[in-house]
Design a protein that fits this description.
This protein has 2 domains: 30 residues; 103 residues, Vaccinia Virus protein VP39 (Rossmann fold, 3-Layer(aba) Sandwich), CATH 3.40.50. Helix 2 packs across helix 3. The chain is built from 5 helices and 4 strands; from the N terminus they run H-H-E-H-E-H-E-E-H. It has a 4-stranded parallel beta sheet with strand order 3-2-1-4, with helices on one face. The longest helix is centred in the N-terminal third of the chain and has 24 residues. The chain is of the alpha/beta class. It is elongated and about 60 Å long. Bound molecules: S-adenosylmethionine (SAM). S-adenosylmethionine binds next to helix 3 and strand 2.
Length: 139
């Protein structure tokens, strides 16, 4: 019984710390990365559409945008990320990997001009998708 209590204590502690991290450093928004299969499918769709000016809305630490920039070197990719720490990490990783067709902007994608976009990707909570679509429509 005491072993179960110990395990529950540490699991609850971990979950609380993780939630606190998300609340403090990521405005309550979890940074869950795209799976490689999801990335591949998004890139296939972008390639099929011939997209050359691509935005990744909510780029996180840049896994998806780096994969796009690498696979579609003829495209210009911009990741928009609201979290300062995630955006800095994405920039550092892109710089280290030597991309010249990829950049990041620390901003709210709802307030970002996307009028030159011909391809937009996002991997967000489904509750956020409708308002995100509104900005794409406006731009
Ligand atoms: C699921 S993660 C993105 C994962 C990333 N696309 C990848 O594949 O690695 C969602 C990201 O959206 C960001 N985000 C949420 N709302 C945002 C907003 N209004 N403007 C910019 N970024 C936002 C969060 O900070 C979080 O890092």
């Amino acid at each position: 019984m005491s072993a179960i209590n110990d395990i529950l204590f540490w699991v609850c502690g971990f979950v609380l710390c993780w939630q606190a991290y998300i609340l403090i450093f990521n405005r309550g928004i979890p940074n869950i990365r795209t799976a490689p299969a999801v990335r591949d499918e998004m890139i296939r769709l972008l390639r099929g559409a011939g997209a050359k000016r691509i935005y990744d809305l909510g780029a996180g630490v840049g896994d998806l945008s780096r994969a796009i920039a690498k696979t579609l070197p003829e495209a210009r990719v911009t990741g928009i990320e609201i979290s300062k720490s995630a955006c800095r990490k994405a920039e550092t990783r892109a710089r280290r990997a030597g991309f010249d067709n990829l950049d990041y902007k620390q901003a709210d994608f709802m307030k970002t001009d996307l009028s030159d976009a011909d391809g937009v990707v996002m991997f967000l909570l489904d509750t956020m998708m409708p308002c995100c679509g509104k900005n794409c429509g406006r731009s």
